[in-house]
Amino acid sequence: MTVTLAPATLQDIADLRQLYFDVYGHGYPVPLGSDPAVMRRLITDPHTHWLTARLADGGALAGSAVVQTDPGSRIGKLVGLAVHPDRRRGGLAGRLTGAVCDAAFAAERLDSVYATVRMVTEGPQQVVVRNGFKPLGLLPNAAEVAGCESLGLFARFADGVLARRESVPRAPAALAPLLTAAESSTGVPYAAVPSPHTVGPAGPAQPPTADLEVISAPGFVRRRFLELFPDPAGRYYPLHAPTAVLVPPDGAFEAYVDLNPVAGSCALIAVHPHPAAVTHALEPLMATVSRSGADYVETLLPLSDTASLTAFLAQGFVPSAVYPAMRRIGETLHDYVVLSRTSRQIDFRTIAVSGPLQPYVSAYLTAWTATYLPRHEVAL
Q1: d(Cα 227, Cα 246) in Å, to the nearest integer?
Q2: Exposed/middle/buried for residue 89 (C-beta within 10 Å: 0-12, 13-18, 19+)
Q3: Residue 359: which of 202, 237, 190, 205 has the closest Cα?
Q4: Which of 62, 331, 349, 377 has its CA 20 to 30 A from that of 288?
Q5: pTM surpassing 0.85?
Q6: Which letter does DSSP use for residue 74 in this model?
């Protein structure tokens, strides 16, 4: 099969919408495959790299892949990888992945490009690994595609980036299984690997009596967010922007979230006045976003922020992934941890896990068990 790779144009939109429908039906949770306005914006955005693959004989659209970038954070995200069901043999997915990532790294000063990969089969995982991506962890129940699905997190790094990581000497003990899995699966060393024997179950949550209020006026949310977090360091969450703010009736905190009911997910981007302020209200937070259509909540915290990590871990968030060298400060890069909670039962029986992700499955199960199952004394 001979194909030609070329940047997407506005004239491709109708064919692209048909391609994503042929691949996913009505279940694709990303608007770049269905919303013409979003597609036009991305195709004309200089920081979005969108490649199409067309057959040489006739020009039919065979595949598509996109890398969206956040220049300020020097991070990109691989999204929208799709190959027509009739064209899946011959390595087109791998060729598109490699080409669009090479284009993004060549055009911009990126430190890394990450991808969240479906785990219904091993194929997508193998595609990204063959293109230099390293496995970073799991996102259980993270997306509503064809039912509730878990995703794998992978990242490809620019040359020399991992060598400039800031070493973290200590980390909460609950991160031990995840950090050990990361060393095993990626070869990235972690000095901050505590003893797993000190991992204990989380204490019971202490929610307030009232539910949280949801403010979803986009313009107001953006303005208020920038007012409260004028320093980019305080709102660090690459390629995410808040779409709603959750507040208790007494206004004790404001939790800014990227709430996506179509995907069934919610990213907790920032909390004012500080991240730990929301930890006593995580039960009503989960109930509120669930009523809004999201059964999965994740947040991103520095590996060095022991206090915030400990606060979230104590209230039922489970360490799911670790992203080495994610954030650049000067010439030093800092590691971040993905913590997640889901209100649905997790069922790993239906996922296909490739070898590089296997250690993360064991690590997640260990951390989840330590968080939600009490340890019983054994009488000898």
Answers
A1: 16
A2: exposed
A3: 190
A4: 349
A5: yes
A6: T
